[in-house]
Amino acid sequence: MDELEINADSKTPKYKQIINFIINQIEKGKLKMDDRIPSINETSEEFYLSRDTVEKAYSFLKERNIITSVKGKGYFVSNAELVSKVNVCLIFNKLSAHKKIIFNSIFKTLGTHASVDLFVHHSDLELFKNLLKKKIGEYNYYVIMPHFERFDDESLKLLKGIPEDQLIILDKLPEELQGNFGAIYQDFKNDITKTLEQALEELKKYKKLVLVFPIDEMYPYPREIEQGFRKFCATNRFAFDIIDEFGPGRDISEKGEAFVVIEESDLVNIVKKARTLNWQIGKDVGIISYNDTPLKEVLAEGITVISTDFKKMGTRAAEMILKKNFIQTENPFTLIKRKSL
User: pTM for this structure?
Assistant: First the structure.
């Protein structure tokens, strides 16, 4: 019990903190069958807790046959193969088709081993902080997508308050957050640079590259995408432009432009405009779209995409929880060439 830390400021009652700690130690194999745990008096005195608080925690564990008491000898672990589910808290920035793929992958991989709750912070830092304040201490694991342009000190402190062996960061890894927690992330700047390099020969037939980078105040896209695009264009001496949307009334200035689009609405508008002009997609105008979908396989005879593997991202997060092996790893990002380029 030396590693037990009671957080007096936590909204999780102290007796529950004791329960969570003992269960966690059993799950990690640090407490094994028939191992003795400190008595009520010993725990009370060592951690400056009331006897009633410790007794409440031990009674809860005894009722569920996790520990047992032997008169004159003390308390012992009676079930080292817990069948109770671990509780997993998912905090995503938004719900989209791709976030649903991640959620479904996590849920399916964890199976009957976990109970999963999903919360959405909508890239609202205050809402994000309130969620953390309410949920920290209530779950065994936290899988978080912190999509913010910047953090404040309070949000960083809250994130750092989650034990590293209970925290997994998904999709975007904040530079400000350091530690040995788990992470499956995209390298947004280098991912776009590397994948555009793979399409270099196809792109050379176009006079100009245009990145359609939405300015979305509610759900901001990582600025590293724009930085990586600029780097690629400068390195390979491409004329380029960056616009925030391709609306229905916008014109394509001339043949020989290739567009890199993030939002599907911009993709659809470019395809419509090309058809109106009777231009051939993949020859007169090029298109690369972010994030693959079944529709993009058939739209305009196939849209070239650059995409991370969202299913793998979810699977890896779930496997970290199941195997209790928390590492930091970049998620695969690939180019799928189709006729639109």
Answer: 0.77
